[in-house]
Amino acid sequence: MNRLFTAITIFSIFRNAIRLPSVSAAACFAASIGRWKYCYFFLSLFLWSGTACADLAVIVHPDNAVNEMNKRQVTDLFMGSYSSFPDGTTAIPIDHPAGSAIRSKFYQYFTGKSVPQINAYWAKLIFSGRATPPRVAPDSASIPKIVAENKNAIAYMDSSLLTSEVKVVYIFKE
What we know:
Layout: H1 2-18, H2 25-52, E1 56-60, H3 71-78, E2 92-95, H4 101-111, H5 115-128, E3 135-136, H6 143-149, E4 153-158, E5 167-172
Parallel strand pairs: 2-3, 2-4
Antiparallel strand pairs: 1-4, 1-5
Helix pairs in contact: 1-2
């Protein structure tokens, strides 16, 4: 509800900023410059606040023996360095669809690389036969369900969307 109010407020500011009074073109231009500055400021503030509010949670099935993981362990699983959880059971990493913002955020945090760099990395590993990339979910909304149905699955998601069907083993707070 708060986001909706913010969006409506920004839209109103934007709409009023582009309405020009019926005077000469030069006067309209001069008067609108100040309004545009405010409009851009509020619009950028709104867009920034939307990306900064969500934490990433790395999740597993509730019956999985692993209760906690560190950043290195998560990175190793999703980058193909390891194929097992720390307790030795097989891990099945689940990735978000290509182009999703959460996928970019995840790989940037855990590896410091962009998604195109990650894709190039996986292309090399697949070609050499050394590893297989994480399975890709059909959509981000299906991630909790996939993990809840597979004891060996590990995935990441927006922490604000967590359910009791999954267990959190790592939280990345922005």
